[in-house]
Design goal:
The structure holds three protein chains of three kinds. By secondary structure, chain A is an alpha/beta fold. Chain A folds into three domains: about 240 residues, Rossmann fold (3-Layer(aba) Sandwich), CATH 3.40.50.300; about 180 residues, Rossmann fold (3-Layer(aba) Sandwich); about 70 residues, no CATH class. In chain A, about 45% of the residues are buried. Classes of the chains: A alpha/beta, B mainly alpha, C mainly alpha.
Chain lengths: ~500, ~325, ~350
């Protein structure tokens, strides 16, 4: 029975088109995989069928009827459950209370705790057999928490279960257990939609798969027939690469020197960074790639001095430095363009001018009384250097477009000497036209000033277009470093996705 | 998100109104109260009356400045210890001055020292220990009250302010009370410091977005501690002025100013989330509250009306300005 | 494996690590010190006096604990207490016995209103609860001053039953004995415990903890967080009312400023009793332990012959100390949690 049918879905956020033609169907008792690179639209699709967003166009049919959910709660009541990563658990409550939260059964006026405990126990019996359901959720490991989230979604006996990257925090054995349970659910007639970046997982558990690229569904394939190989899937995910001849040549003619500007030795931070060592040469643009959330952002923050206690050593031009505060990093001319511009890079309600000038106050060389004329001069230089489109310096920065906002985040460093520029996903949420413009400006500046750049981009095309070398990160480690001709989208995805091989390679090194 | 060109243009035209909406509302409300007072009780709309109101409001406005500085630093900062800080400064400096001008400079020094210590304690507990500032400063107020109790147990608070202080705080030049001049000077200094020096820019930045400020190289915890210190120092100096106005120090000198100072700041458009603060707005808020108080007293609802009125005003203003307008 | 019977040994270990049990130890220490300083501490009359001082603080702290567990604070506790005493004694001014019933009914309504107003600001409008209740504390003060500009008023004779059965004319003998064995103040505390017991067994009781432990998570799960917070504030208001009944029975008068010093004490007492300032943790019953500790500290100060003037100072320092230690404990346990979750 076709439980879900979504066709012709279009969705736009502000000026950014997330989906232009999304199609997806799910059958009872079948597991459908969703594949696609970052920004391909697959997450938006998952959110639309979960009731988190509403499609701008197209229709969603649930159990044959056309549906339009006002909010996720409505979807839940209709039998659509979503398993996210740790978003709806209350840490200080025990496991069994969390699993039944919101759907507790009552005996008259009072809670039927016996029933809740029994139900929670049943649900977790196969998933986590030795788990003490009286433990507070916050004492569990992230993997265990993910399973509890799953149990919580299952408690309402949904007809359609959407699992959004559930295996991200799981070890191999746990993934296998999860898959066993999913198969059992399938036998009971539950329809499932499963997303993961790991190709082997999709190929193992899914009955069919839908591939997204650039906001469209580009392929729907039945995996049971065994006719499809991983390479075919990768082909659909990456699409045909438009050869960017100019980009390639520009990259090849820009020969970074061999002088080592930054060297890291065995950087570690809690769970998110493990034993990261690499060199950065003067004038080079070094990319950081890999699946989302593997420690790339944290590496940027670490180099920017955000973490007070960082294990390992950092050397700048051969000199050992301690970067325990952003102010120290700034003094060493290591400057960060942070990943979340609204939360980390901008003062949304303040004017463009103040945003551009602010880091100068931290320098200590600024005079007590402001020199408005001088300040405006600096701001105007930044605006013209980056072609920031604005009517005046006094507009609040929140009225600017995403691309222009991002330019402001970069622009505030322009009056500084920059030895190392850390770019943390600078084009995130910026639409395609502005993206090219933004990068052109940044690269130009870097070239002019012989600045070295470390670029983390969630979109692999950006890495390919601009980087000399690309490091692939997985679970906080650098598992591979690509150079020259290896720097292309296919290889990046391969090395990020087929991490089984890559990890073995890294471990054997 | 891309903002359409037309939306951006609309902002700049509407911008002036939007930005000053709260101040315009405050001025409107003040006029309303004065007119209402004149109708109901009479005698509200003569210049003398208005100037007295402004004089009384000056003290409140200065306390409002303390709140503004702490609120601007962000993180829902508030300073409930300003009342007793002012009181304790008055109590300890009165005997030093003892009615003469000779030791005025020493009195000022002592007051500043008191402010520094109180502010430092408030700041460290709020910024470094991350305790909620409302509870910290409330407890600090209790501690200060306790110290005053100990000091005054079984003895009279002696000492009178120096004549200079009395002239500044209590007397007038012609028709205009001197406190109005004091307020004007403070307003000027505040405006300059907040809008023309890097201190103000850093303060507003830290309040607007602590992470961005930190990544921009600012020691945000130190800035917030300094904000509390500034608030306490200003409060102690207000204590000297109160002493000058009253003629001697007594135990409850400052405590009745605390709630209205917060109300004045909120009415004056200072955001509880931090990142902004216009002292002119706070002054207007203080004048509004003082006028409201005069009206209530004139109507015979003195004490009770005062507290109910201020409480209700703050509650309503909080809902109107701060209340959750976002849908989740 | 029967899920309803968990393993014993780990459970025991967990029990001792909790902050509530640390406060039990402190409690015992306090009682010992108090007994040493006051020779006749355990004598019936002085014990009665201690319990009479303790009872209302326990009730107020339990109420504050409910709000704190829900992730909020109530700074209008003391003012609400004063307001209720004023309303009660005002309605009973004529002295007619039936006015007592009327007073009771009306004040219950007032209490619910107080809770709802706080809940609207902190829950529905999502304004910081400290600021909202700070504002409302002055509204309650103002209204109380309207009703009772100066302390005074009346309470009908049967109302004294809330304080001591033997001060009620015409009290039947068996009830008198009952009243000596279990003094009314303890009855009120037991009533509050019963109310909380019943509530904690319902969905609302669970949700109060959920909202306090993780408001966003609770919201995503579909729980009405605003309504839950409002209910917590109403429960608090009712517990404060019980304390007001005791005070009116004891003093037969109402005073608009009477409750002021209590507010901070309830916060410190709840924290000392193991309730976390951030919410979601702690048992409301352990608030009782906290209240006893705080009251004993007051008593010790009195008997150690520290001058009364120091009282306020020490009270303030105790609050700072109590919440400071509680915060340190929270930071410490969160850090050890993070370390435990780290692999290798």
């Amino acid at each position: 029975m076709r439980v879900l049918e979504a066709s012709g879905i279009k969705k736009q956020f502000g000026g950014v088109v997330a989906l232009s033609n999304g199609n997806l169907s799910a059958e009872a008792g079948c597991i459908t995989g969703l594949l696609g690179a970052n920004g391909s639209g697959k997450s938006t699709m998952a959110k639309i069928i979960a009731g988190v967003h509403n499609a701008d166009a197209g229709e969603v049919r649930y159990e044959g009827r056309r549906v339009h959910y006002a909010n996720p709660h409505e979807a839940k009541r209709a039998g659509v459950a979503v398993v996210y990563q740790n978003l709806s658990l209350v840490g200080c409550l025990p496991v069994w209370q969390n699993v039944m939260l919101g759907i507790e059964r009552k005996k008259g006026l009072f809670l039927d705790n016996r029933y809740s405990r029994r139900k929670a126990h049943e649900l977790l019996e196969h998933l986590l057999p030795d788990l003490d359901i009286d433990r507070a959720v916050e004492t569990l490991s992230p993997a265990e928490m993910q399973i509890v989230e799953l149990a919580k979604a299952l408690a309402e006996e949904p007809k359609l279960l959407i699992l959004d990257e559930p295996t991200a925090a799981l070890e191999l054995a746990e993934v296998r257990t999860l898959f066993d349970h999913m198969r059992r659910l399938a036998q009971h007639g539950v329809a499932m939609v499963f997303t993961s970046h790991r190709l082997w997982e999709v190929m193992e558990i899914c009955d069919d798969v839908v591939v997204f690229r650039n906001g469209e569904t580009v392929a729907q394939m039945d995996l049971r027939s065994g006719r499809h190989s991983p390479d075919t899937l990768i082909g659909y995910i990456t699409g045909k690469e438009e050869s960017n001849e100019e980009r390639q040549t520009e990259r090849l003619t820009r020969a970074p020197s061999h002088e080592i500007v930054l060297r890291t030795k065995h950087i570690s931070h809690e769970r998110v960074l493990r034993d990261v060592s690499f060199d950065l040469r003067r004038g080079e643009i070094l990319g950081v790639g890999g699946l989302a959330g593997q420690g790339q952002r944290e590496l940027m923050l670490a180099l920017a001095g955000f973490y007070r206690h960082l294990k390992g050593e950092i050397e700048l031009q051969g000199r050992k430095v301690g970067l325990t505060r952003p102010a120290e990093a700034i003094r060493e001319n290591v400057l960060l363009v942070p990943g979340d511009r609204e939360a980390e890079g901008l003062f949304l309600n303040h004017s463009l001018g103040i945003n551009l000038i602010f880091p100068r106050y931290g320098l200590g060389t600024q005079p007590l009384f402001e020199r408005p004329a001088q300040n405006r001069e600096i701001c105007r230089n930044a605006v013209s250097a980056l072609s920031i489109k604005t009517s005046s310096l006094d507009v609040p920065v929140r009225t600017l477009s995403g691309g222009n906002q991002q330019k402001v985040v970069v622009g505030k460093w322009l009056s500084f000497d920059i030895d190392v520029l850390l770019l943390c996903d600078p084009a995130k949420g910026v639409d395609v036209g502005a993206k090219r413009d933004l990068y052109d400006h940044i690269v130009e500046l870097a070239l002019e000033r012989h600045t070295s750049v470390i670029l983390y981009a969630s979109d692999n095309e950006e890495l390919v277009d601009y980087c000399d070398r690309v490091m692939i990160m997985y679970e906080g480690r650098i598992v591979d470093t690509l150079e020259d001709r290896d720097v292309n989208a296919d290889t990046i995805i391969e090395r990020s996705v087929n991490t089984g091989d890559a990890r073995a390679r890294a471990e054997s090194v | 998100m891309r903002v359409a060109e037309s939306q951006r243009r609309a902002w700049s035209v509407r911008g002036s109104y939007e930005r000053h909406k709260r101040i315009i509302t405050a001025v409107g409300a003040i006029i309303l109260v004065f007119v209402l007072g004149n109708i109901l009780v009479g005698g509200f709309l003569n210049v003398h009356e208005i100037l007295i109101t402004v004089k009384l409001a000056s003290f409140l406005a200065l306390f409002g400045l303390c709140q503004m500085v702490v609120m601007a630093a962000g993180n829902a900062g508030l300073d409930l210890s300003v009342g007793y800080t002012a009181t304790i400064a008055a109590v300890f400096t009165a005997p030093i001055m003892n009615g003469h001008n000779g030791h005025l400079w020493l009195a000022v020094l002592v007051a500043v020292a008191i402010g520094v210590m109180v502010g430092l304690a408030n700041g460290i507990l709020s910024s470094y220990a991350r305790l909620p500032s409302l509870v910290v400063t409330l407890a600090m107020a209790e501690v200060l009250q306790g110290i005053i109790n100990i000091y005054t147990a079984g003895r009279m608070i002696n000492g009178t302010p120096s004549p200079v202080l009395q002239t500044v705080a209590a007397k007038s030049t012609g028709m205009v009370p001197n406190m109005v001049f004091v307020l004007a000077v403070v307003a000027l200094v505040a405006l300059v410091v907040l809008y023309r020096t890097k201190l103000g820019a850093i303060l507003f930045g830290v309040g607007e977005n602590e992470t961005t400020a930190y990544l921009g190289g600012i020691n945000t915890k130190r800035v917030r501690t300094l904000a509390f210190m500034a608030s306490a120092v200003i409060a102690s100096l207000i204590g000297l002025l109160l002493l000058g106005n009253m003629g001697n120090a007594f135990k409850d000198m400052g405590s009745s100013y605390v709630l209205p100072s917060i109300a004045a700041a909120v009415v004056g458009g200072v955001s509880l989330r931090g990142g902004n603060g216009n002292f002119i707005g706070v002054i207007l808020g203080a004048i509004l509250l003082q006028a409201l108080l005069n009206l209530l007293v004139a109507l015979g609802w003195g004490d009770a009306g005062k507290w109910t009125g201020f409480g209700v005003v703050l509650y309503v203003v909080l809902i109107a300005y701060v209340g959750d307008k976002r849908t989740r | 494996m029967n899920p309803n019977r968990t393993r014993v040994a780990p459970r025991l270990r967990r029990v001792f690590a909790q902050p509530e049990h640390a406060s039990l130890v402190v409690l015992v220490a306090m009682v010992v010190i108090a007994a040493i300083l006051q020779r006749n501490f355990f004598a019936p009359t002085s014990l009665m006096l201690t319990i009479d001082a303790l009872g209302p603080l326990i009730l107020l702290t339990m109420g504050q604990a409910v709000v704190m567990v829900c992730g909020a604070l109530d700074l209008s506790s003391g003012a609400a207490l004063s307001l209720y005493t004023c309303v009660l004694t005002w309605i009973m001014e004529s002295g007619h016995p039936l006015t007592g019933v009327l007073a009771l009914g009306v004040t219950i309504g007032v209490a619910v209103l107080v809770g709802v107003v706080n809940g609207i600001g902190a829950g529905y409008m999502r304004i910081s609860s400290v600021v909202v209740t700070f504002a409302t504390s002055f509204v309650w003060l103002g209204i109380a001053l309207f009703i009772r500009p100066t302390p005074g008023g009346q309470s009908v004779n049967w109302f004294n039953a809330f304080f001591a059965y033997d001060s009620v004319h015409g009290m039947p003998k068996p009830l008198l004995t009952f009243g000596t064995v279990i003094p009314p103040v303890l009855q009120l505390v037991l009533l509050a415990c019963l109310i909380w017991f019943l509530i904690s067994k319902t969905t609302v009781g669970r949700y109060i903890y959920a909202v306090g432990g993780g408001e966003d998570s609770a919201y995503r799960t579909g729980i009405n967080t605003a309504r839950t917070k409002t209910i917590a504030y109403v429960i608090n208001a009712l517990f404060i009312l019980l304390a007001a009944l005791f005070f009116v029975g004891q003093n037969q008068s109402g005073d608009a400023r009477f409750g002021e010093p209590f507010t901070l004490q309830t916060i410190a007492a709840a924290v000392v009793g193991g309730i976390s300032l951030t919410g979601g943790r702690g048992s409301v019953y352990s608030a009782i332990v906290g209240a006893v500790i705080i009251e004993l500290v007051n008593k010790i100060i009195f008997f150690a012959n520290i001058p009364y003037a120091y009282g306020t100072l020490i009270a303030g320092l105790i609050v700072i100390f109590a919440i400071g230690v509680s915060q340190l404990y929270t930071i410490y346990s969160q850090r050890s949690l993070a370390k435990r979750n780290a692999p290798q």
